[in-house]
Design a protein that fits this description.
alpha/beta, Glutaredoxin, 4 helices
Length: 109
């Protein structure tokens, strides 16, 4: 399961882990549910990796997260490697799961 997190905890994990996938969502956002399902599938591929984290921030609870990460629409997924943003996905891109899996494999090898 994707870990629900706070802004502060997300920032700490981004700095300390090799790869972090950070999903910004809201309960009312229907496309966010589709992204969550895809992320859960991708998570299964990397479940055994302790240096990779899949995190979610509810923007209704953590309103400062939108400005901090410059998120202007939902859903948004940001991929970090060693504390640096390397890719951003907005909406539900075609082949999102395949593309994200490939990206994580390349970043974590």
């Amino acid at each position: 399961m994707i870990q629900e997190t706070s802004l502060r905890e997300a920032e700490n994990l981004i700095k300390s882990l090799k790869v972090v996938i950070l999903d910004f969502y809201a309960e009312w956002c229907i496309p966010c549910k589709a992204v969550e399902e895809i992320l859960e599938q991708v998570l299964r591929v990397f479940r055994s990796r302790s240096d990779i984290a899949f995190l979610r921030i509810d923007v209704e609870k953590e309103k400062d997260a939108l400005g901090r990460f410059e998120v202007y629409g939902l859903p948004t997924v940001i991929v970090f490697q060693n504390g640096v943003e390397v890719r951003r996905f907005s909406g539900v891109p075609r082949n999102f799961g395949v593309e994200l899996t490939r990206l994580i494999k390349s970043l974590s090898s």
